Amino acid sequence: MKFRTIALVLGVTIGAMSQAMASDAEALKLKLKALNTFQADFTQQVKDEEGALLQDGVGNIALKYPSKIRWQQTEPDETLLVSDGKKTFYFDSFAEQVTVMKTAGLIDTTPFVLLTTQDKAQWEKYQVVKIEDGYRVSPKQNVESQVELLDIIFKQKGVEINALKIKDASGQTSTFKFLNAKTNIQLDDASFTFKIPHGVVIDDQTESD
Fold first, then answer.
1. Which of 9, 49, 97, 154 maximizes the CB count within 10 A of its CB?
2. CA-CA distance, 117 to 71, in Å (whole number)?
3. Any idea what DSSP says for residue 78?
4. How far out from the chain centre does Cα 112 lie?
5. Distance between CA atoms of 178 and 164, rounded to whole angstroms?
6. Angstrom distance (rounded) from CA 119 to CA 116
7. Would you call the peptide bond into 76 cis, given omega within 30 degrees of 0 as the criterion?
């Protein structure tokens, strides 16, 4: 995952459409509210805007309500994103650097955080539209976001997430398909803590807030 922001203008002018989107957002919130924890392995494919494959990857993910995330990519590069609900740590082992951010602020750079929060103010920054097998999330006008579109695909029954599809401003699309998924199991909070390794470069973005 790369932390870059873009300005997007995605407005809605028709009242009926706005109401439909609001209903879709409530439906997605209700579905995610039943997802207290989620754990899975994933495969990743990154394609350019013409559909050519740029990169394959594998890793694992764990989510716990509220706002706890552990996202680890093991191939082709080792990176780790961990949020304890208050602070988020992004560790790039190759660069030997840790970026520290406030978790609450991440909603302004990625709608992915919506998977772990029911906060009304956060959800109001995004619009939601029902699509086949899932929902499409995009930033509202004047909301900075690192992604242009986020598709959340569920299995036909239940609340298990089957895939995520993310399109960024450059036109690149990353598709994550989940394997060996488990929902609403007990996950220790220790899984969502991160100890900064000795000797790495620390970019603490919380100090400027």
1. 154
2. 16
3. -
4. 2
5. 8
6. 9
7. yes
Least confident of 20-24, 96-100, 156-160: 20-24
Listed residue (159, 189, 185) closest to 34, CA to CA: 159
Q: Rounded to 5, what percent of the chain is helix, strand, coil?
A: 20, 45, 35
Q: What is the pLDDT of residue 110?
A: 67
Q: What strands lie across the sheet with 97-102, from one edge to the other?
A: 126-131, 134-139, 149-154, 161-167, 173-183, 37-47, 53-64, 68-75, 79-84, 87-92, 97-102, 201-204
The amino acid sitting at 147 is V
> What mean pLDDT comes out for the span 13-18?
26
**Is this prediction's pTM over 0.90?**
no
Nearest to 88 by CA among 76, 78, 98, 102: 102
The two structure tokens encoding residue 16: 């009926």
Contact in structure between 53 and 79 (CB atoms under 8 Å): no
Q: According to the model, what pLDDT value does residue 59 have?
A: 93
Name the residue with tokens 């209903």.
Answer: 23
